[in-house]
Specification:
By secondary structure, the protein is mainly α. The protein has 18 helices and six strands. It has helices spanning 34-38, 74-80, 83-92, 98-109, 118-123, 131-142, 155-181, 194-203, 214-226, 234-244, 249-260, 268-279, 285-293, 314-330, 335-348, 351-355, 363-373, 377-401, and strands at 2-10, 13-20, 28-29, 58-61, 66-69, 72-73. The strands form two sheets. Strands 1-2-3 form a three-stranded antiparallel sheet. A hairpin with a 4-residue loop joins strand 4 and strand 5 (66-69). It binds acetyl coenzyme *A (ACO). Residues 264-266, 268, 292, 300-307, 356, 358, 361-363 line the site of acetyl coenzyme *A (ACO).
Length: 428
């Protein structure tokens, strides 16, 4: 909605730009006509002050530590909802009725199998391949199997592709794990929940019955909820940018997985647990805090700090609580949790972290839980990708359904050589 005007003076001349108002959060200055009017671009590497799109899915107030999906606070969803329900909510805008919920979970359940030929793809990877390398490749390869649903201008095709992606991701991730450990791939079991099925495909073997531990299933489902969507983060923006050219959804999600892999984004949970294990005992924490504060040392406290949250990440609060539940259910007591709690306490009392508003993020505790459940660290980011697929497809759908959607094409501040003439090789 256009509201008041923002004034900008360029070269002594005044220009007006409309200010748009969302339902929550800061107003935005609509600068779409800036270049045309002023012959200037804006410069904002890292998009620290740039809203790249309009979206009705997720709202974050980083100063207050608030995260809402379609208006519902993440704490309420994590406490009362299920991952399938949150997926429905993100895709459709409203919580489902009982019939809608049953229909949706049924549809997802019946899309969990992979085309049998997909098995061959796995054989092409080295046994020690990172699961994210496998995920990027296999998800991208899905586009070669589903020509019946890649007309992105058809809402029904988009819906089927979205369901396929959400449904097949647990199978793809579980098989990436199975391939690494050399165990047979497990087929989905339609009698289980989305999350129970994933646990069975990951930790079950064909020779034995696998019993899903309800507390672990609940914790895992909650972890999926906490990772389902997070506004215009790097991987979601990657999915949108890839999709803006009209690329098929499987290729777009594969691009999102590639972006998520990096240690500054989804790879942080793996890095955070590795860091906690390296620290080892609480007496070594001060040394690592000093390293994190030292500008000449590239070391950072992994799982700390966030581009948007300048307060406690509300997802980290739920994660910390979930650690205790999983430890109780599995009767484990990994000393790494005590190290994490102590590190958090010391960092939050340190002026460096206070002044820079650096708080634990969702990744600080998630590795501790996932490790207790039995996942190797290399699988952590793959689990994140599995859950975030819901957000990616919801955001991609929102973008493609927008009649005003255009290809994403940033500009630049060019600092290279000005035009010069080619010099033949024998003259150089
Ligand atoms: N440890 C120590 N210092 C830090 C940390 C940290 N974890 N994070 C930020 N800082 C410092 C920076 O050195 C910088 O200091 P300066 O102003 O003196 O130069 C200041 O805080 C601001 O940091 P930026 O990197 O400019 O902040 P930005 O918003 O660009 O980065 C990021 C956010 C990438 C998450 C950063 O905090 C970080 O690297 N954290 C560790 C990795 C991590 O946990 N990533 C997960 C993010 S959540 C997610 O993707 C699910």
């Amino acid at each position: 909605m256009a509201d008041k005007q923002a004034e900008l003076t360029v070269g002594g001349e005044n220009f007006d730009f409309p200010t748009l108002k969302g339902s929550c959060g800061p107003d935005v200055i609509d600068i779409r006509k800036l270049y045309g009017k002023t012959d200037r671009f804006t410069f904002d590497p890292g998009y620290k002050s740039t809203a790249s799109c309009e979206s009705a899915l997720t709202f974050i107030d980083g100063q207050e530590g608030v995260l809402l999906h379609r208006g519902y606070p993440i704490g309420q969803l994590a406490e009362n909802s299920s991952f399938m329900e949150v997926a429905y909510l993100l895709l459709n805008g409203e919580l489902p009725s009982q019939d809608e919920y049953a229909d949706f979970t049924n549809t997802i359940t019946y899309h969990t199998m992979l085309h049998d030929q997909m098995r061959q793809f796995y054989q092409g990877f080295r046994r020690d391949a990172h699961p994210m390398a496998i995920m990027c490749g296999v998800v991208g390869a899905l586009s070669s199997f589903y020509h019946d649903s890649t007309d992105i201008s058809d809402p029904e095709h988009r819906k089927i592709s979205s369901h396929r992606l959400i449904a097949k991701m647990p199978t793809i991730a579980a098989w990436a794990y199975k391939y690494a450990v050399g165990q047979p791939f497990m087929q989905p079991d339609n009698s289980l929940s989305y999350t129970g099925n994933f646990l069975r495909m990951t930790f079950g073997v064909p020779a034995e019955e696998y019993e899903v531990v309800p507390a672990v299933e609940k914790a895992m489902d909650r972890i999926f909820i906490l990772h389902a969507d997070h506004e215009q983060n790097a991987s979601t923006s990657t999915v949108r940018l890839a999709g803006s050219s009209g690329a098929n959804p499987f290729a777009c999600i594969s691009a999102g997985i590639a972006c998520l892999w990096g240690p500054a984004h989804g790879g942080a949970n793996e890095a955070a647990l590795n860091m906690l294990r390296e620290i080892g005992t609480p007496d070594r924490i001060p040394h690592y805090i000093e390293r994190a504060k030292d500008k000449n040392d590239p070391f950072r406290l992994m799982g700390f700090g966030h581009r948007v949250y300048k307060n406690y990440d509300p997802r980290a609060t739920v994660m910390q609580k979930t650690v205790r539940e999983v430890f109780d259910a599995l009767k484990v007591n990994d000393p790494v949790f005590e190290t994490a709690l102590k590190l958090e306490e010391m960092a939050l009392n340190d002026p460096y972290f206070q002044e820079k508003k650096l708080f634990p993020n969702v990744d600080f505790y998630s590795g501790v839980i996932l490790s207790a459940i039995g996942f190797p660290t290399t699988m952590f980011t793959a689990l994140f990708a599995l859950a975030r697929t819901v957000g990616w497809v919801a955001q991609w759908n929102e973008m493609i359904s927008d009649p005003g959607q255009v290809i994403g094409r940033p500009r630049q501040l060019y600092t290279g050589p000005t035009q010069r003439d080619y010099v033949p090789l024998d003259k150089r």
